[in-house]
Amino acid sequence: MWMKSDADEINTEAFLASLEKDAKERAKRRRENKVLADALKEKGNAAFVRGDYETAILCYSEGLEKLKDMKVLYTNRAQAYIKLGDYRKALVDCDWALKCDEKCTKAYFHMGKAHLALKNYSVSRECYQKILEINPQLQTQVKEYLNQVDLREKADVQEKEAQESLDSGKNSAVTTKNLLETLSKPDQIPLFYAGGIEILTEMMKDCTERTLFRTNNGFSIISENEVIRRCFSTAGKDAVEETVCLSVLRLWQAVCSENEENQRLLVLRPDTGPLLPSLLASRVPAIRQQSLALLLQLAQTENGRSLIIGHLDLIRLLEALVSFLDFSDKKANSAMGLLTDLALQERFQAWFQTSLPDVLPVLTGVLKRDPKVTNISALCQCLAIMGNFSAEAAAQRQMSASEDFGAACLGLMAKCEEDADLFRDVMYALLGLVMNLCLQSPFVSEVWAMEVSKKCLSLLNSQDGGILTRAAGVLSRTLSSSLKIVEEALRAGVVKKMIKFLKAGGQTASRYAVKILAICTNSYQEAREEVLRLDKKLGVLMQLLDSEDEILVGNAALCLGNCMEVPRAASSLLSTDIVPVLLKLAGSDAQQTAVQLNAGIALGKLCTAEPRCAGPRGAQLLLCRKSPQPTRPGHWGALRLKPARGHSMEQGSFLAPAAIVFSLLSSRSLLFPPPSPPTIPTSLSCLSVSSAFPETIKSLTSFFFFPHVGPKHMEECPIGYILELEKQACWGRVGAAR
């Protein structure tokens, strides 16, 4: 039998040690090279941002010499090659990136872009589809990429057909080319260009001529003409300059009609981004009108809207569109229709959120307008758009933090009060905006909240259902901020009005009304007494407990519990089914836990105020909470029981695991009323689930579950939980596009 010699063992150990040393050295070199490669990547990125693509490529290449499997260097270099038009090299780098990571979506993106530039449309589509297979969450982006492929392929077909028409000597095609050659002559008088452009505009009847305009450098010929540029840049235009500007705007409308590639080339020109918003704000009404017509034409398609959002100066565009509110005719509505179309786009919404500090002064200016001299329907649409944006928490915070914005809201409300009928729609849209602002706490100031509340209390006298509902909605959010506001509301008779709301029905109005009542009865005995005076057996509130709307149910239960503090209120409910209803709610698996809590609180107050509600005998369960320090493992909390009034029980109280009761609530295994008096052991501090105690628990008349109670003593009962209405995404309904 062969045995290893000592020399063999030494050689093996030395070999393994050598391998380990080599692995450590290689790992160290890789770490060092990774640091160098990262530094070169950052250097290349900086050059790319500057537009120095050659230097960027050199940096990425040096980085790859340090670390050959760093995929981001391949994809970054591919992007730089695409910028230089070297699409073949870009494809090679994308292939290398995919060898490093077969699921590299950036590689497929740049590969799709390179194939698109090479007019390999089907291959480009396959690359973009591959991105979707790897990451379905990129569906929106992939959809946009595929749309670009379709548009470019369509444009390619158009250009081939247009060239065939030109080669065949088609009259309109030849005339289009000749006119562009004529217009390319420099240093002519402005009217020379205006006349030629008007003739050219008449030629743009179908796709062939529009495509030939593009393929024969029409956009460059017009936009780079120094005489035409001077006409556009002159602030106070004379008649000739105005004529030139109008002729160009009409030409752009003609060449962009039903031609998305022409739209793309027009908007992508570097001078177009600032020029179109500037023309839209021109002092010359005709230029403003034609500029608006061009933008409306672009915004008819999703691709056109994307071009506007991605390449125009949106702050200046917003300012210009808002200025159309001064127009009394349909141009104001058209401008707001355009703003609506843009506002519905996710990219515009993202821009709005990030640019709000710059946008806020523009919006404040809208609120400061006098509705008497403003296009009312357009103003309403603008306010509705603002209301939609204010549904986002970030926008709410910035708007509500602006004293100027808050003051402008109050000022516009005051102006609308001067003629409630004429400005009804303005007030309605404005209340939607204010309601969203009131979701943020703290408000602009307590003074502001008080002033808003006073105006809404006054609006509760309106005969208009929409105004009434929204005024109540605002109050449901301002009342909880200050007891002074609650007192003001009580003096204005808000309880009586809210009871009327509840009797009239309507889910939204009822939500607001019952929340207002819950807030008022939470703090003031006079509010509780008035509720009972107006709803003697609390039938209106009890009816709400049957609703499937948890907001309604939770606040109604809280209001009922508050009313139990009025003497003899509980006695009036003896003949009702209030106890089983509250028991059912307390043990329900409602998504809003406050529904269970408020029902339990109401039940406890009811049984405390009127022992007969707990049955002829038995123990009344008062409290249950989640204990911060359970008495033994597995016990979530404890129940505190004591005898119902007028009934004897052995001295002492006891605790039982809350988990038992919670389980019973969930399984609905209660007997009501109990068939016999429960046998309650004395001197028990904590009972295990396995004891005989669950049978005793089952026989109790009523109990409920609280996750916590007051901070000091177990015996303190929480006052209740006001359920907040969920955020409304759209208050003012956005009007029709045009």
TrEMBL record:
Organism: Bos indicus x Bos taurus
Function summary: Cytoplasmic protein that plays a role in the proper assembly of dynein arm complexes in motile cilia in both respiratory cells and sperm flagella.
NAD keyword on record: no
Keyword Phosphoprotein: yes
Keywords: Cilium biogenesis/degradation, Cytoplasm, Phosphoprotein, Repeat, TPR repeat
GO cellular component, one term: cytoplasm
TPR repeat locations: 105-138
Gene behind this protein: TTC12
Upper taxonomic lineage: Eukaryota, Metazoa, Chordata, Craniata, Vertebrata
Subcellular compartments: Cytoplasm
Gene3D superfamilies for this protein: Leucine-rich Repeat Variant (1.25.10.10), Tetratricopeptide repeat domain (1.25.40.10)
Protein name: Tetratricopeptide repeat protein 12
